[in-house]
Design goal:
The complex is a heterodimer of chains A (199) and B (251).
Chain A (H helix, E strand, L loop, with lengths): L3 E4 L7 H9 L4 E4 L2 H5 L4 E3 L5 H10 L2 H6 L5 E4 L1 H5 L3 E2 L4 E2 L7 E4 L12 E7 L14 E7 L1 E3 L5 E7 L1 E9 L2 E4 L7 H13 L2
Parallel strand pairs in A: 1-2, 1-3, 3-4, 4-13, 5-7
Antiparallel strand pairs in A: 5-6, 7-10, 8-9, 11-12, 12-13
Chain B lengths: L4 E9 L2 E2 L14 H11 L4 E5 L4 H17 L4 E4 L5 H9 L4 E4 L1 H5 L2 H10 L4 E10 L2 E6 L4 E6 H11 L3 E6 L11 H10 L4 E4 L5 H9 L5 E4 L1 H4 L5 H10 L7
Parallel strand pairs in B: 1-3, 1-11, 3-4, 4-5, 5-6, 6-9, 9-10, 10-11
Antiparallel strand pairs in B: 1-2, 6-7, 7-8
Helix pairs in contact in B: 1-2, 8-10
The chains are: A alpha/beta (199), B alpha/beta (251).
């Protein structure tokens, strides 16, 4: 049996995530089959591109309710994390509502040197989750995004790009990270390792 | 805080890294995968691989190389060199590259930027611009700086951003290879006009040059080749020097 099922719902390249799991020696399977996803030990929800398109792809496969009903550890990455939130300004779409916070557009600010997309290595602060075991406040992760989840009680890591936003969220068995652990060097590997070991 | 990025650039010809590097203690400095992994271990924030193969066979080798880099390297990497169609870009992105860079082909056919950004998203496309100073203007050149065009730098960079480029990589061909520093005023002016990140390239001779372009020059990242390849300093040593100058870098 695989350690993790990666939900494959046609939102771009999953190769980076698969490669990162390979480097950790984890067994994984790509699937869009509800039965396989429901039987998984843990589930990864990746995603790149437009949040409203991604939400539509998830719904078209009947996977929105499947994800909502999962009781095993679930990790959303980037747009996958945004889909676990209440809504997204990108295409004004209602999302899965696991995390009770909206996803809003980031705004560039020439005077303050704030660029959008928010791209590059930024610090994670206010870490409060076993997802970050072994990591220190101020460690760097790699981000690429133009929309971000607002701070809320479910925030477990904070980052800043003009404003402070949720770099990571969790509620019960659900986890989400805005950055790309699969591209975040040793810090990212540790986060994926921690997710694979969360009970 | 968002760190300024340091990006080593590796030239690849027929599947092998060009330019000698022997300070890394690698068995095979010509292996682009090993070399990239070594730079990542030293603290590189991203990597750029430029395919300078002139043959069809060489280009085929590059695609399979991209797959190997993707499986080994755990930081983002961009590939470029000779990408002239959506199919070229698709082959490389589907092989595991995180971004592709376009240069001459986009000047010839600006719609290429829209098409790649439309299919994959802005974050996957870097517009590389080679410019030369002509009187009181900066003019775009193609084919490694050898051909002048009638395009002006600032309008082309803004057009590239509007068409969907997620980053702009600017090289001053007047400074490239001189190791005399960057034209910081130019970078600062352009950076202020762009909402997307600006990567500075060409001209670094020292850590101070790179520190200046990341502060006075307001660049978001610096791409460098010679300074690393000829053993002048490691990525780690450069970052320590930058941190000592007050630049926020990922250590």
């Amino acid at each position: 049996m695989e350690d993790v099922v990666i939900i494959d719902y046609a939102t771009g390249n999953l190769r980076s995530v698969c490669n990162a799991l390979d480097r950790l020696g984890a067994r994984w399977r790509l699937s869009s089959d509800a039965g396989e996803i429901l039987a998984a030990e843990r589930v990864l929800l990746p995603g790149v591109g437009d949040a409203s398109c991604a939400m539509n792809e998830l719904k078209a496969r009947g996977l929105d309710d499947v994800v909502r009903g999962l009781t095993v550890p679930v990790l959303g990455i980037c747009v996958g994390m945004q889909l676990l939130c209440r809504s997204s300004e990108e295409g004004n779409v209602n999302c899965l509502g696991i995390f009770n916070t909206p996803v809003c557009r980031l705004h560039p600010d020439a005077a303050a040197g704030v660029k959008v997309p928010h791209m590059g290595w930024n610090t994670l602060t206010d870490l409060t989750s076993p997802l970050f075991d072994g990591l220190e406040d101020g460690c760097f992760a790699y981000f690429v995004h133009s929309y971000a989840a607002s701070l809320c009680p479910e925030t477990i890591a904070v980052a800043q790009n003009g404003i402070s936003f949720s770099a990571a969220l969790s509620r019960e068995n659900f986890y989400g990270v805005q950055f790309h652990p699969e591209k975040s060097g040793e810090v990212g590997s540790r986060i994926l390792y921690n997710f694979l070991n969360i009970k | 805080m968002l760190a300024k990025r340091i990006i080593p650039c590796l030239d690849v010809k027929n599947g092998r890294t060009v330019k000698g590097i022997n300070f890394l203690g690698l068995k095979d400095v010509g292996d682009p995968v090993e070399l990239g992994a070594a730079y990542a271990a030293q603290g590189a924030d991203e990597l750029v691989y430029l395919d300078i193969s002139a043959t069809v066979e060489g280009r085929g080798t590059f695609v399979s190389l991209v797959e190997k880099i993707a499986s080994r390297v755990n930081i983002p990497f961009t590939v470029g060199g000779g990408i002239s169609s959506l199919d070229d870009a698709a082959r490389l992105l589907d092989s595991g590259a995180d971004k592709i860079s376009v240069n001459s082909a986009a000047v010839r056919n600006p719609d290429l930027i829209d098409r790649i950004a439309g299919r994959y998203g802005s974050q996957f496309i870097v517009l590389a611009i080679d410019a030369r100073n002509q009187g009181n203007q900066w003019i775009i050149t193609t084919h490694g700086g050898s051909r002048m065009t009638d395009r002006e730098l600032f309008s082309w960079a803004r057009e590239g951003q509007e068409r969907g480029a997620g980053e702009i990589l600017l090289t001053s061909m007047d400074h490239d290879g001189t190791r005399s520093g960057y034209p910081c005023d130019l970078f600062a002016q352009l950076s202020e006009q762009l909402s997307v990140p600006l990567i500075a390239s060409g001209g670094a001779g020292s850590a101070q040059d790179i520190a200046r372009v990341l502060t006075e020059g307001k660049a978001d990242a610096a791409l460098a080749a010679s300074i690393f390849h000829y053993g002048q300093m490691t990525v780690g040593e450069l970052k320590e020097a930058l941190a000592a100058s007050g630049v926020c870098v990922r250590m």
